[in-house]
Amino acid sequence: MADYKRSQATSSWYGRCNTIMAHTQEYLKELKLLHSKKTFGVNRNIPDIVKNLIEEKTIKSFLDYGAGKGHTSNTIKETYPNIELHTFDPATFPNPLPNKVDLTYSSDVLEHIEEDLIDKTLQDLCDRSTRYQYHLIACHPAKKVLSDGRNAHLIIESPTWWKRKIETLQGWNIIYEEISERMAEVKKGPPLHVVKYIVIMEKQ
């Protein structure tokens, strides 16, 4: 397995035994509108570092948190047919969540949580996850906006902000982190400075 060393590159609330994701009903409507767009929530690739984690740490259960259109879950199902797979998204897959899971995975999800509910969400994921968490977090404004004019990324904060928040979670260590930056062309307006914070956490 790749050596997990730190690297630097350029309101509704349901019981924990059932479906859970912190959100207001008004925002859930906005999420459903976003997911109705063909280009939203379409990621299907599994990062190599996640594949290594699954294979070398013998991950037996996997939570695809904020699954969008479910393409990543489909890839997991095809690649690891024996893994216990849980797929959740409040807008597209409002399924019951597991009480315990080996690995929680989210990609471009946490920045979409309402900021006053992000702490509850992170703590809930910590309570459910028994071994590892992988999160890829966008730290820049999204190209899309909500119908009320807000940016689709409700939390636009630096990697440092996210790291400090994650480091407050008791019982977890950051074992890998990466910051990626690039300029992305957009149809209208100047290029977008894309910043992503990638973090793997291990339970103590």
Write structural notes for this entry.
The protein is an alpha/beta fold and 204 residues long. It has one domain: Rossmann fold (3-Layer(aba) Sandwich). The protein has five helices and six strands, in the order H-H-E-H-E-E-H-E-H-E-E. It has helices spanning 25-35, 48-56, 71-79, 118-128, 159-167, and strands at 61-65, 84-88, 101-107, 129-138, 172-184, 192-203. Helix 4 links the parallel strand 3 (101-107) and strand 4. The chain starts with 24 loop residues before the first helix and ends with a strand.
| Total domains | 1
Shape: globular
Q: Which CATH-level-2 architecture? A: 3-Layer(aba) Sandwich
Count of DSSP strands? 6
Low-pLDDT stretches: 1-19
Pattern of helices and strands: HHEHEEHEHEE
The CATH homologous superfamily is termed Vaccinia Virus protein VP39
Main sheet: strand order: 2-1-3-4-6-5
Name the average pLDDT.
Answer: 87
**Rg (CA only):** 16 Å
Ends: how far apart? 19 Å
Classify the fold: give the CATH topology. Answer: Rossmann fold
Report the structural category: alpha/beta
- CATH class, named Alpha Beta
Task: Draw up the topology in text.
Elements lengths: L24 H11 L12 H9 L4 E5 L5 H9 L4 E5 L12 E7 L10 H11 E10 L20 H9 L4 E13 L7 E12 L1
Parallel strand pairs: 1-2, 1-3, 3-4
Antiparallel strand pairs: 4-6, 5-6
Could you give a short description of this structure?
The chain has helices at 25-35, 48-56, 71-79, 118-128, 159-167, and strands at 61-65, 84-88, 101-107, 129-138, 172-184, 192-203.
What are the key terms here?
204 residues; alpha/beta; Rossmann fold; 6-stranded mixed β-sheet; 6 strands; globular; disordered N terminus
